């Protein structure tokens, strides 16, 4: 696993460069590195693979259902076919065309491949980071690269570095997601420093240099990332990221108070329901549905609004948003970008698929939350993943930066680290020794 872990570190170290280059180059690099890593993992330690298998089995349905959904969209299905095929047959004066759900089966097949790459990256990360020291190293690297991506954006605002970043629309900019992830990961490292200090030393001994260096580095990363969000004008995302930090604080509080997972989860869900009841009705007041969460001018939302209203139950096919948006644009206009990841999924996969994916995100959160509450001094891994899942789910309604392959890779690795460390490497009598921190 040593070579596989070093390859994972190398891939993460390349993400600041991939954030600048973007496009198909980033996809090719991530795909090649993931394929190599997966091959090494399958030939690695059987003990490490066996310890990761129970963690992954509980998500088997989550991993397989999108594959089945995209496969269904690709193959001819006369009863579920998109109406565009019958209309095209009439326009071309042909008796019939092979009806499919997807309006572009090739694009949907490519989306299926990219999805399998991300799943393979997550699975590989779970196996590699079952070792705690490796997991810590990966978390430090994640903190460094996400903070560096935020620094890249701040530098691009200076005249001396203008043009180093390819200009894209606000909705498709990957930097908001990177900054939000940097805040959460650095927050987790601050929690790690405090947890280790309280575990090893007297609570009154606050003069330890290692403690203050770790806290200073974490707070510096958080400050840089918040500055990037402010420069991006992402005020709503700042609030959402603040909620992610509150998840970290909430988990730390219930652990210190000695709450078990059940009461802690019910308390958190109650607080989340109250917050949702305050925010969601206000965002939906304009009758825009999913578009009510997006901060874009009305003219930029017009094609997506029509696409949403006309989207079939089974969607238009993964990877087909820009193609289907042509029909709703003025002649000669540039191809529209999706205003948010939630809108993208509703148009391409259907509203039912979007609801199912949200339920799957809830399962990822609950598993991570349970691991964070039950684990000992290493709870910050799972706590960070729980916070990341919350922020990623909320941000999917705000912009489409999560559709960027570089951000998807970072999220996959972060979730993999949290799942790998959501339980200890021992069970039974040995597992009982991994008790909650006092």
TrEMBL record:
Transmembrane segments annotated in the record for this chain: 50-67, 112-130, 137-155, 175-194, 206-230, 236-254, 266-294, 352-373, 380-398
Record has Magnesium as a keyword: no
Keywords: Membrane, Transmembrane, Transmembrane helix
Signal peptide positions (record): none
Entry superkingdom: Bacteria
Record protein name field: O-antigen ligase
Species: Bradyrhizobium canariense
